[in-house]
Amino acid sequence: MKPRRLVIFDCDGTLVDSQRTIIGAMNRTFDGLNFPRPSEDAIRRVVGLSLSESMARLLPEGSAGDHGRLIEGYRSAFLEMRSAPDYEEPLYPGVIEALAHIEGGGMLAGVATGKSLRGLEATLRHHGIHDRFVTLQTADRNPGKPHPAMVRRAVAEAGAEPGTTTVVGDTTYDMEMARAAGTYAVGVSWGYHPVDELRAVGAHAVIDRFQDLAEVLTALLDGR
71 and 97, same structural domain? Predict the structure, then answer.
């Protein structure tokens, strides 16, 4: 049987604009444990990594116990913010249309994210798009980005192959993960890492809007 074509999306910074919640939860967590707040730029730089790797980078002088407390504090702060009346994590423009194009073209969609499975499913269900993905890969069930394990597992679950798979993400970790797994790597310009950095680590293309994804997929997968 011919391998299926699979498009694997990152979540935060690619599908969902979660910057306000992530930075707010980090600030609450570091304040609550009396650690110095990392800068907003430092927080943006670790989005996409597992929480353990993120905390190690944000508090490099901290102990394993410190990092564990930060992880638990962040999870609690994030859930608290998500439950607030003013909670808002909108989809980026064009997400629904891009998913419809993928489905209409007989392709499959998946997600590979540094979030936990619980957090990812909550986000996708909040936006009514959970059932549009055939595979969900998270950092609590796989090695974190940029390790290629999440992509390899998604490819296997979807019945695809690396050569018929494209990873779409906003960070260098996404691009490195895709290249390490032997798939195509497409960056988005609206996320957390600059476009020149995405290209430098091997992005095959970078899009400025989701409306451009269909053309890029055709060019990569069909060689046009």
Answer: no
Active site annotation includes 12: yes
> For residue 200, with 0-12 CB atoms within 10 Å meaning exposed, 13-18 middle and 19 or more buried, which class applies?
exposed
Q: For residue 212, indicate whether it is catalytic.
A: no
Considering the domain architecture, whether residues 114 and 152 belong to the same structural domain is answered as: yes
Q: How far apart are the first and last CA of the chain?
A: 24
Least Cα distance to 110 among 177, 196, 53, 43 occurs for: 177
pLDDT for res 107: 97
**Beta strands at 135-138 and 4-9: parallel, antiparallel or unpaired:** unpaired
Supply the pLDDT for residue 224. 53
Beta-strand (E) ranges in the chain? Answer: 4-9, 108-113, 135-138, 160-169, 184-188, 205-207
Q: Are residues 110 and 206 in the same domain?
A: yes
Range of the domain at 167: 4-17+90-222
- Choosing from 12, 31, 66, 170, the catalytic residue is 12
Q: Which of 48, 41, 38, 39 is nearest to 13 (CA)?
A: 48
Residues of the chain with pLDDT under 70: 1, 224
Catalytic residue chosen out of the listed positions 10, 31, 41, 222: 10
Query: What total number of domains does the chain contain?
Result: 2
